[in-house]
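Students often ask why we bother encoding 3D structure as a string. The short answer is that it lets us treat folding as translation between two languages. Here is a chain of 220 residues written in the first language.
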Amino acid sequence: MNITICDLLDLSHTMAADYLRQFRYPWEALDGIKDLILSLGETLSPEEYDCPAEHVWVHKSAVVAPTAYLGAPCIIGPETEVRHCAFIRGSALVGAHCVVGNSVELKNVILFDNVQTPHYNYVGDSILGYKSHMGAGSITSNVKSDKTLVVVKGETQIETGRKKMGAILGDFVEVGCNSVLNPGTVIGRHSSVYPTSCVRGVVPEGSIYKDKDHIIRRQG
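And here it is in the second language, the structure alphabet:
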């Protein structure tokens, strides 16, 4: 299973690069996102970043709608757009050239540069790689219904030791509209998920996910 940080993510496209290099698997980094943002925020230049509230840093080139809520701590990167009624609950590191759309909720996440969560998405306890895209209404489910610890299921099973884990999207992943990414979902680089899918476990790099019994290799 190619599910390590090096397999999934190009670290040149996030402010969290040095932090993420400490770990083998991306979900191991979820517990420290809050402290990471707090430490990064203190290093940001006031000439480049506004601080509209304590522990909230917004790049001067970012566009934030007046109805958006930015909960601390969070960092909003350059040229990013946060649209009307977005709800950033906190512990959100949002990269450059991202879209956080209308009524989107973010909580304990790292969004790499050029990530798009444009319409009615919930993303919690997750990491979204460079140029990944969540279709309208697609969400990450971050707690199992029986409240047991999350296990990443692929060729082998890896116990995360975590009660809360949403999804890890590799670079250039496309998630179709109204899909649910269940706890412990890991999607490899350059993979796509059909609309209205219910995804669980590992989707290999360069795949098209139609349903759990039909995951095919991308051609070309």
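Translate back mentally: The chain has a mean pLDDT of 97. Keep this in mind for the problem set.
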